[in-house]
């Protein structure tokens, strides 16, 4: 079998609802590697949010921040930071509306407010054991690859003037990802597959949510989790069982890789 590359989303896909890797998933990934395939991660998470998962599964190729920070075999391949002036404008509007922001680079994150219940609750759902400390100027002297804007559904209207610079993708009732406009996991994946020279027919992707749609539509061999959103299922070639029910192993069988 020729070498293929398989990209896995994390939350709701590679991870079960307890944010753990199922034993069947661990065994399936080991089997892929034994066959000579490349196993990679494609996530909206920051790199420091899944260090432990990469170490657990021995994965050194990944697309993070929904395509804004791409690493191939442990080396940075591509970055796409947020526009600095637009980020300043976002900060100004957020302060006027009393909405918290978390600024995230490739190593750490800081919040523009000292303590926020919405920040702690939202990030706490990821079970990463990390919360941002306070530094309202963190964005001023470094590249920021993603921000988290903390506003409830329906409170996005003040930020509509920034849509030419940013995409806003809701991931929690209290929070949206702020991404460079036009960025996506799929574009980040393209940087890796182009560098490796792997054609579309040997590219595979697993996902479950709105930030996976371009990836699931763009990669011919795509698999949506049975526990995922209907939009993800509609975009994918195959639909497997849930992330709690051996969905990765079953999906790899559907795709003919196991």
From TrEMBL:
Top-rank taxon, per record: Bacteria
Signal peptide: none
Entries under Gene3D superfamilies matching the protein: 3.30.1240.10, HAD superfamily/HAD-like (3.40.50.1000)
Xref: PROSITE patterns: COF_1 (PS01228)
PANTHER family, per database record: PHOSPHATASE YKRA-RELATED, PHOSPHOSERINE PHOSPHATASE
Descriptive protein name: Phosphatase
Species this protein is from: Saccharibacillus endophyticus
